[in-house]
Design goal:
By secondary structure, the protein is mainly β. Among the domains are: 87 residues, Monooxygenase (Up-down Bundle), CATH 1.20.1280; 198 residues, YVTN repeat-like/Quinoprotein amine dehydrogenase (Methylamine Dehydrogenase, Chain H), CATH 2.130.10. It is built from seven helices and 33 strands. The N and C termini lie far apart (51 Å).
Length: 493
């Protein structure tokens, strides 16, 4: 208990970026016993250790102690802690190097799980901890990988599911008395005109109000902690706001307001990064509208605070800080939500875009085209954007794309392989089958994909519909053999 309390004290000091000496005190931080400090630091997580190391040289010395990183290495790869030659260069460096390799899928022996439900291909996949959510027609197959691979079917919808989202229960008052701190609930929209909220494998709310199929859901919840709101868009051209509170039986009286203005079906929704009361919507005719959801609750006649348009069919939308990046046609356009002006074109991918993802922490965006992926740095060449990398080697359109600080994962419906690339170098680290390999891989592609850290799920289409392939590289031990002829991207500064 004493060590835990001391650990809490350490991290509070670290997060405040305190100086190494305590003012108006007869003793300094450096007077602490180093061994006791190292022992206390061993109770911290990786983020807290990083904060501690950035505080001062004395704390950095404790945070970098070999004993701490031996414990981290032993926890994740116990069979390698004694035999790894990499440890000779420093335990911390060896741990971080191995963790990076795991995040980049640089191994040939992940833990693999196959799940098959051959009715039709899966259209959407979400991956959260040990749970895989697979949308298949009007049903959601929930597969748990940590409890003897159990599967549950969520089948209350009676038409095709169009969108799935996972949100934290901490953000709402839903089931607050029963929920754990890290619990999440699933939200699905469907062509049956309804939205359903799922928790503990049951439909807890059914939200009705759209007069046609619900086409999309907001990527985040609107509002502050006092009252979170879900946004949805439909083929009826409306955007609707739903209150996520525990009041109302089975979702009755949950509809807060309806926004009219789009003439075509709503394709995509995104919550502004700098102001959670602003919602961006784009319809199939590429018309963009920004809604201030606080005005609707205040009784204003119109909540639309801005309009613009882009060229081409909408592909993706991401909001970061005060900018909204919209991928449509063959370009990604950045719009300033404060002025509704198009500030720059972030990417041009000829002849058209099939997918779009963004990594705000590195100012990178990724675009998927026909047979290749392009990586762009949005800080450079805004007048005449040029890609910083071309990731070649795909077959057909790249409609599936994921990016994180470690890797880019890409695939498509005509390609039997999903490819993995290093984010910073563009080097291909792995090429993985989207389903179980057999004598012939023709006619099989990837219908959906989800990536979460060191885990990935792919779903096949073609001759093997309804097959999901789960890989977990967390405990992988056999790295891919180095090959001087391995595929690398066209990458330049």
């Amino acid at each position: 208990m004493i060590q835990f309390l001391l650990g809490v004290l350490i991290i509070r000091i670290a997060k405040m970026k305190a100086s190494c000496s305590i003012e108006q005190s007869s003793r300094n931080i450096t007077d602490l016993d180093l061994d006791a400090l190292i022992h206390s630091a061993s109770y911290l997580n990786l983020q807290d250790l990083s904060n501690m190391a950035m505080t001062c040289k004395f704390f950095k010395r404790a945070a970098y102690a070999d004993s701490i990183w031996h414990n981290w290495f032993r926890e994740h790869w116990p069979q390698q802690i004694s035999s790894s030659s990499a440890l000779s260069s420093g335990v911390r460096e060896a741990y971080l190097s191995k963790r990076t390799a795991v995040q980049q899928f640089k191994f040939v022996d992940p833990w693999i799980l196959h799940y098959s439900s051959p009715e039709k291909p899966y259209s959407h996949i979400l991956l959260d901890k040990g749970d895989i959510f697979l949308a298949q027609g009007s049903k959601v197959r929930k597969v748990n990988t940590s409890r003897s691979v159990s599967a549950v079917t969520l089948s209350d919808h009676n038409a095709r599911i169009t969108c799935m989202r996972l949100f934290s229960l901490n953000e709402t008052s839903l089931f607050r008395s029963e929920a754990q701190n890290k619990d999440k609930f699933l939200v699905t929209s469907s062509c049956d005109h309804s939205i359903r909220l799922w928790w503990k494998d049951c439909c807890q709310r059914c939200l009705r109000g759209h007069n046609s199929p619900v086409t999309t859901l907001s990527d985040k919840l609107l509002g502050d902690r006092s009252g979170k709101v879900l946004a949805s868009g439909g083929e009826d051209g409306t955007v609707r706001l739903w209150s996520l509170t525990s009041s109302g039986k089975r979702g009755q009286r949950a509809l807060r307001t309806t926004f009219h203005g789009h003439e075509k079906p709503v394709s995509l929704l995104s919550v502004a990064g700098h102001k959670t009361s602003l919602l961006v919507s784009i319809s199939k005719d590429a018309k963009v509208r920004i809604w201030d959801t606080t005005l609707s609750s205040a009784g204003h006649l119109s909540s639309c605070v801005g309009m613009t348009s882009v060229l081409g069919a909408p592909v993706g939308i991401k909001s970061h800080e005060s900018l909204c990046y919209i991928a449509a046609g063959n370009a990604v356009t950045a719009i300033d939500l404060r002025t509704m002006r198009k500030v720059f074109t972030a990417a041009i991918h000829q002849p058209k875009l099939y997918s779009f993802e963004m990594l705000p922490s590195k100012s990178f965006i990724c675009t998927g085209g026909n047979d290749k992926v392009m990586l762009w740095d949005i800080r450079k060449n805004q007048e005449k954007p040029e890609p910083m990398a071309e990731l070649d080697g795909h077959v057909g359109p790249v409609s599936l794309l994921q990016i994180d600080p470690y890797k880019i994962v890409s695939g498509g419906p005509e390609d039997f392989y999903v490819k993995v690339w290093e984010t910073d170098t563009g080097v291909q680290t792995n090429s993985l089958e989207c389903c179980i390999p057999d004598e012939s891989d023709t006619g099989i592609g990837c219908s959906a994909m989800a990536v979460n850290g060191s885990r990935m799920v792919t779903a096949s289409c073609g001759v093997e519909p309804g097959l999901a392939y789960f890989r977990d590289f967390t405990r992988a031990t056999h790295p891919i053999a180095s090959n001087e002829d391995s595929i690398s991207s066209k990458f330049w500064e």
